[in-house]
Write a structure and sequence with these properties.
With about 475 residues, the chain is of the alpha+beta class. The strands form 2 sheets. The chain has a 4-stranded antiparallel β-sheet, with no helix packed on it. The chain has a 4-stranded antiparallel β-sheet with strand order 4-5-3-8, with helices on one face. Among the domains are: about 130 residues, 2-Layer Sandwich (Alpha-Beta Plaits); about 60 residues, no CATH class; about 60 residues, no CATH class.
């Protein structure tokens, strides 16, 4: 197939001959067939207007000219869906839209049809497009990450934790000039972490002393740099004075050339150049002379009478400074030894106190055990006392109950005695009557109730228990 023509040029399509069919181009004066928006990652096209007798082999023969076909889904009606291997093949298939297809040389209606090719939206195409986009995004993130890692500054080395071994190594590093910066950072970190304790105070003091030992070195370097600066100033002043002297000579040359004897022999252009050069030289000379005078004024303002007196004795001052530094170092060593001695004394006292605490703890342990045993014994005795108190309460309750029963029995006895006395006074009963009363107390009570209804109502028995007691007592009284 020829490539699609640019949109600004008229499209001139040609007849396409195949083995089983022929494709005739549409009328060039007609507008191009309409198509839908292209879906992302589209590899499938819709082909409509196929002849009814068009087989799948004929369709494959026609559209294989556009590219590799992965699948053809033909419908029972006159359309099908064709999926290509690549996206650019779809554009070639769209080019065939509008062609009239004829099978062989037949003019039958079932063997002809006008093709309509359009973009189709397939899930497989969209899924592959999404996978490709995710892959590209992942590669882009990986590339950006690599670029960021290239420009990222290296992370600082981790600070080691404090130990006696590390403290000894750090003290040696603090004494070394090349490793001083690294060691001082570690020491500051240990201070911030709170690693200083009573036991590690001596190690930290020795490290502080090692750091302080660099003071003399730094002071010596400062003095040497000041001397170098003074020498540089002197060299600068001498060089500047030499430059000024040369400028004076140049200006003198220009002045000599501007005199009447020599001036008349120069041309106008030469005179003009000489004037310009003379003015430039004078300006430069004046500027340098002002700079030199300013430097001298600053030195005069900084210097004092003491500086003038001490300048010839500079070497003596350096010796005095060295002696003072040595004395200061000896004083620091003496202080450090005294502090170490105090620390050792404190440690000895702590050890003694700890040993005394150990002995005390053993004695306290035995005392605690004895106290526990005594407490357990007291608890047992308290429990026994409580049980005895409960038993005493029970006995007291039983005694009160017995007393109540005894009082009730006595009251019944008094009632029965009164009853018997009353009966003896009224009747001189016979022995048979007494035996009846002794045999069964309830019959006596019944006869008494019949004889004296008033008294019987007063001495009536209320409960079966009282009646039984009355009968028992009556038997004992009348035997």
């Amino acid at each position: 197939l020829p490539p699609p023509a640019p949109p600004e040029m008229p499209v001139m399509k040609e007849i396409i001959h195949c083995k089983a069919c022929t494709l005739f181009p549409p009328n060039p004066n007609l507008p191009p067939p309409a198509t839908r928006d292209r879906p992302p990652g589209c590899k499938t096209v819709f082909v409509g207007g196929l002849p009814e007798n068009a087989a799948e082999e004929i369709i494959r023969e026609v559209f294989e000219q556009c590219g590799d076909i992965t699948a053809i889904r033909k419908s029972k009606k006159n359309f099908c869906h064709i999926r290509f291997a690549e996206e650019f093949m779809v554009d070639k298939a769209i080019y065939l839209s509008g062609y009239r297809m004829r099978l062989g040389s037949s003019t039958d209606k079932k063997d002809t049809g006008r093709l309509h090719v359009d973009f189709a939206q397939a899930r497989d195409d969209f899924y592959e497009w999404e996978c490709k986009q995710r892959t590209l995004a992942r590669e882009e993130r990986h590339r950006r990450k690599i670029e960021e890692e290239k420009f990222r500054p290296p992370s600082p080395a981790p600070i080691v934790h404090y130990s006696e071994h590390e403290a000894s190594l750090m003290a040696e590093k603090l004494k070394d000039e090349t490793k001083f910066d690294e060691a001082i950072v570690v020491l500051l970190t240990w201070f911030e972490r709170g690693e200083v304790t009573r036991r590690s105070a001596n190690n930290f003091y020795s490290m502080i002393q090692s750091a302080n030992s660099h003071t003399r070195r730094l002071m010596g370097e400062k003095v040497s740099h000041e001397e170098a600066m003074e020498q540089a100033k002197e060299q600068f002043k001498s060089a500047l004075s030499g430059i000024l002297s040369e400028f004076e000579q140049i200006v003198a040359v220009f002045k000599a050339a501007s005199k009447q004897k020599a001036w008349d022999h120069f041309s106008k252009a030469q005179r003009k150049n000489i004037d310009i050069w003379r003015k430039q030289a004078e300006e430069i000379r004046n500027a340098h002379s002002e700079e030199l005078m300013g430097i001298r004024r600053e030195e005069e303002m900084e210097m004092s009478d003491e500086d003038y007196e001490e300048s010839p004795n500079k070497k003596g001052k350096v010796d005095e400074f060295a002696l003072a530094a040595q004395a200061h170092a000896l004083k620091e060593e003496n202080d450090s030894l005294r502090w170490q001695l105090d620390a050792y004394r404190n440690e000895v006292e702590l050890l003694k106190q700890e040993q005394g605490k150990l002995y005390r703890t053993e004695e306290d342990h035995t005392k605690d055990q004895q106290l526990r045993f005594l407490q357990q014994a007291m608890q047992g005795m308290q429990q026994q006392l409580l049980s005895l108190q409960e038993e005493c309460r029970k006995k007291e309750l039983e005694l009160e109950r017995v007393k109540d029963e005894k009082s009730q029995v006595q009251s019944l006895l008094t009632v029965l005695k009164e009853k018997l006395n009353y009966r003896n006074n009224e009747t001189n009963g016979t022995d048979t009557h007494r035996n009846d009363t002794n045999g069964f107390s309830l019959s006596v009570g019944a006869q008494d109730t019949h004889t004296n209804e008033g008294r019987a109502s007063i001495i009536s028995l209320k409960t079966e228990k009282e009646a039984l007691l009355v009968g028992i007592i009556a038997t004992f009284l009348h035997v």
